[in-house]
Design goal:
single chain, mainly alpha, Four Helix Bundle (Hemerythrin (Met), subunit A), 2 strands, 156 residues, two-stranded antiparallel ribbon
Length: 156
Amino acid sequence: MDLIVETLVETYKWVHDVLRDEVRDLTPRLLDHVPASGTSSIAALVLHTLGSEAEIWTIVAGESTTRDRAAEFVATGLTASDLIGRIDAADRLLDERAPRIGAAALAAIWNRPNRRPHTGASWLINNFGHAREHLAHLQLTKQLCPDVYPPVARPF
């Protein structure tokens, strides 16, 4: 396997490991908690991150893909086990797609719906940044869950 692709797989799997740790002990109510208008739940952040990642890895592997991005933000009632299962599936997807991505695929220009074309390397690296960004969003959202971090008492 290409060394760059191997490194990317390791870094994406690191994000997956942290995602597992973050959701492992959360109830469906906490996974669905939306702390403020215009924000997303922890479950939505996990689904969106994995959906985007699957789309990019599939495109750069030279395969066609379909994605219902809007559905990633409205799913509710998932358990921590459900999300961990999806994260595990994302690990398997990386293991399946990565061997199909070599230097030529990294250098090639790939099209993604509603986006400007970029090289495979650019898509994969930028998408890793996207995953890290949403991991941070998830961690902040978790901090805003009252059952996880009770709000500080207001002074009189």
